[in-house]
Specification:
The structure holds three protein chains of three kinds.
Chain A lengths: L12 E2 L2 E2 L3 H32 L8 H27 L5 H9 L23 H4 L8 E3 L6 H30 L5 H31 L2 E5 L9 E8 L3 E20 L2 E22 L5 E8 L8 E2 L3 E13 L5 E7 L17 E6 L3
Antiparallel strand pairs in A: 1-2, 3-4, 4-5, 5-8, 6-7, 6-10, 9-10, 10-11
Chain B lengths: L12 E6 L5 E2 L4 E9 L6 E14 L5 E10 L10 E7 L7 E2 L3 E13 L4 E10 L17
Chain C lengths: L1 E2 L4 E4 L9 H4 L16 H10 L3 E5 L6 H14 L9 E5 L5 H11 L5 E5 L5 H15 L2 E6 L7 E4 L4 H10 L9 H10 L4 H20 L1
Parallel strand pairs in C: 3-6, 3-7, 4-5, 5-6
Antiparallel strand pairs in C: 1-2
Helix pairs in contact in C: 2-3, 4-5, 7-8
The chains are: A alpha+beta, B mainly beta, C alpha/beta.
């Protein structure tokens, strides 16, 4: 007898068990976040129209202002971010999503999957080799883009201070009108403090990013193998004096553990090979510090490795000490393949999986 | 033996002999081994699974990758003559055995016995792929004097 | 190494760090009482039944709540009722949205079954109320872990002690002198009584000792 079941629009994965179809579950989740997004748009239109049609700003109550700013904003941000997360994770398992969140984005499989390449569990390197350099063959991407954090600080500062300004205007209007709202004033104090702090953090991050400038690394070959020697060019932007700029090759281990609601990720640098160091550098406006060096991957080095919860990553570390700003380090991951051992075949045999009957 | 109340207590063991006493292989080499099952008494073994895999060990969740998997089944039970055997598999190019600080990578073969009554027993035997030196932590946490 | 309780033997080829998560993860270590005595899951299940079918383990992070919950789940699976094996379902609440799945788990259980919920504090007061009411209506028993008392009968207050840590370490593979009694005391203190964190700390100490031995 065939049994038909209604699709479960909300499902979650519990360990190794599912409560329903993942596809229907994701569809249900998309409907949920989509409805929040639509509700946010509707509220924005309704409340915005109410404000625009009001005879004057003074006639608009504080709660209308708060409702207009906070409710649509919350609905739009929750709905939008949920949909964005869902779209990026479409078709991926919970473990796959967790792995992508922890590893640099250039480790995203190029559609073939980690184990489909000739070196199982070695992260794919196609994303690296898609970026040609201007002086050497490849330009390496940064481990984590810093511009997003500056953008985040800026967005927070703008949104938060917009709310602060509106509350301050409302409090001022009340004060001028002879009605002092002490509760509103009490709320304003911490809001203003946080708003000022947000602006300071954002400006500092922006100035720092412009003052010290971007760092670029180009290498002559990629991926590398133990024992390989490789040329590297470093370019550092910025203006002014730099006490020191140094290059090194690092090996880092990463381990993630989850139990209950606890998730801990630990990183440990287990190897550091100095490559080059420059001191007392002055960068004139419109110019860039540029130098060439070479490094050797140690002959007995472990190859790059990545699994769902663990990784062994090689990277080039650039440590910069500006004269007037805090020192910082930028990391550029590279992929190191296993040592050459005898003839190397491009295609490793697939895992042998067979069920053998006893033949009785 | 795995937990089942009221069952006879068995002490199965699986003896594995690798073709190299050192149990050290290079990537893409073929590993050959023989095994035999002992200590099962009159218990009925209905299935044997034999596999080769790598797994991680350390401070993170365990991950694993299967290199070879084979299942020997029977509707009733496997006679003692079928509780021994040999198999071979070719190692992939990676990963290599790695003795890190918070991440270690190990290779092993597993022979899993399935008994009647849903009990099972797994025997794991580690071997090495490659010959990498162990990693040393750069900055060592404090240790109390002994 | 051989563990007849789980039906496993392992012939290691390399140096084993006994504090690796492989040996300390949920289910790998038998739960113990604060003073090191063996934990009795059957007694807890009997108390759960007499308390009306809902109960909770209370304690801070790393105090062994999840370990006791898992032991009770296994004991319930191994103890048939009326000649039939008992349905047991494990659920972990990572965030409040997971409550929906937990409610469906209770709905899907037959009467007399047991639902084990890890991290019930994620459900909140309303969620906990709904869950317990639904479980009682369905005739399903509910056993959970929580960081603080949540109104359910407390099956055990989970506390940790240095003695408990020592008994846990005794269950792990031999460390061959890599860590001393002082290391255990220091790790327990550094982890503020959190057994899980203390084991992570001991992992580092064992690795340091081993690297010193190599050099």
């Amino acid at each position: 007898m065939v049994t038909f079941r209604l699709p479960r629009l909300f499902e979650k994965k519990r360990g190794s068990r599912r409560t329903g179809s993942q596809a229907w579950g994701q569809f249900g989740e998309a409907c949920f976040y989509g409805s929040l997004l639509v509700a946010g748009v509707v509220f924005t239109v309704i409340l915005g129209r109410r404000i625009l049609e009001a005879p004057g700003f003074a006639s608009i109550s504080l709660w209308t202002w708060l409702l207009t700013l906070l409710l649509p904003g919350a609905l739009l941000s929750i709905g939008g971010s949920g949909l964005a997360r869902l779209l990026t994770g479409w078709g991926r398992s919970e473990e796959g999503m967790a792995a992508l969140r922890r590893f640099p984005e250039m480790f995203q499989p190029s559609g073939r999957g980690f184990d489909a390449n000739e070196f199982p569990s070695v992260p794919p390197w196609e994303n690296f080799n898609n970026s040609p350099g201007t002086m050497l063959r490849y330009r390496l991407p940064l481990e984590s883009a810093e511009s997003w954090s500056v953008f985040g600080f800026g967005l927070f500062a703008v949104l938060w201070n917009a709310v602060v300004i509106l509350l301050a205007v409302a409090a001022g209007v009340d004060f001028v009108g002879g009605q002092t709202d002490w509760l509103l004033l009490a709320i304003l104090v911490p809001f203003v403090a946080i708003g000022i702090g947000g602006v300071v953090v954002f400006v500092r991050a922006l100035v720092l990013q412009n003052a010290v400038g971007p760092t670029l690394i180009e290498i002559a070959d990629h991926p590398l193998r133990p024992g390989d020697r490789c040329d590297v060019i470093i370019g550092q932007g910025g203006i002014g004096m730099f006490r020191q700029i140094s290059l090194s090759l690092e090996l880092e281990e990463l381990a993630t553990f989850r139990q209950g609601t606890d998730t801990r990720t630990e990183r440990r640098v287990v190897r550091e090979e100095p490559v080059a160091e420059w001191r007392a550098i002055t960068i004139a406006p419109g110019h860039r510090f540029e130098e060439r060096a070479s490094f050797e991957v140690p002959a007995e080095a472990m190859h790059s490795f990545a699994s769902l919860h663990n990784a062994v990553t090689w990277r080039i570390a650039v440590r910069v000490e500006p004269a007037k700003w805090p020192k910082f380090t930028r990391h550029f991951p590279i992929v190191v393949l296993p040592q050459r051992t005898g003839p190397t075949l491009l295609n490793t045999p697939p895992a042998g999986i067979a069920t053998v009957g006893s033949g009785r | 033996m795995s937990r089942t109340a009221g069952q006879e207590r068995l002490e199965p063991r699986v003896v594995v002999n690798f073709d190299r006493p050192s149990r050290r292989y290079d990537p893409q080499e073929t590993v050959r081994l023989q095994y035999h099952v002992a200590g099962t008494g009159d218990a009925q073994v209905r299935m044997i699974e034999r596999s080769a895999l790598w797994y991680t060990e350390g401070k993170g969740e365990e991950d694993l990758g299967i290199c070879f998997f084979e299942r020997i089944t029977d509707a009733e039970h496997l006679p003692p003559t079928q509780r021994q055997g040999e198999f071979a598999f070719r190692l992939p190019a990676s990963p290599m055995t790695y003795e890190g600080t918070i991440v270690k990578i190990r290779w092993c073969v597993r022979v899993r016995l399935f008994f009647k009554g849903r009990r099972d027993f797994v025997s794991e035997h580690v071997f090495d792929v490659g010959e990498l030196p162990p990693a040393m932590p750069l900055r060592q946490p404090p240790t109390a004097p002994r | 190494m051989r563990d007849d309780a789980t039906g496993r033997e392992s012939v290691p080829g390399g140096e084993v760090n006994p504090f690796a998560t492989k040996y300390t993860r949920l289910g790998a270590v038998e739960p113990l009482e604060e003073d090191g005595r063996t934990f009795d899951p059957a007694a807890v299940l009997a108390r759960l039944e007499s308390a009306g079918g809902c109960g909770v383990f209370v304690g801070p992070h790393g105090s062994g709540k999840s370990t006791r919950l898992e032991a009770c789940a296994r004991a319930a699976e191994d103890t048939p009722r009326a000649g039939l094996s008992r349905a047991v379902r494990r659920v972990r609440l990572r965030r409040r949205w997971d409550l929906w799945g937990t409610l469906r788990a209770v709905l899907g259980m037959p009467a007399g079954g047991l639902v084990c919920v890890d991290s019930l504090e994620q459900a909140g007061r309303v969620g906990t109320f709904c869950l317990t009411r639904l479980a009682r209506l369905r005739g399903v028993e509910l056993l959970a872990t929580c960081h603080t008392p949540c109104g359910l009968p407390v099956m055990a207050m989970c506390h940790t002690s240095l003695e408990l840590l020592k008994r846990v370490v005794e269950q792990l593979p031999p460390h061959a002198g890599l860590v001393s009694q002082q290391d255990l005391a220091d790790a327990f203190s550094a982890a503020n009584g959190n057994i899980r964190d203390a084991l992570f700390e001991l992992y580092d100490r064992a690795e340091t000792a081993r690297s010193r031995q190599r050099s």
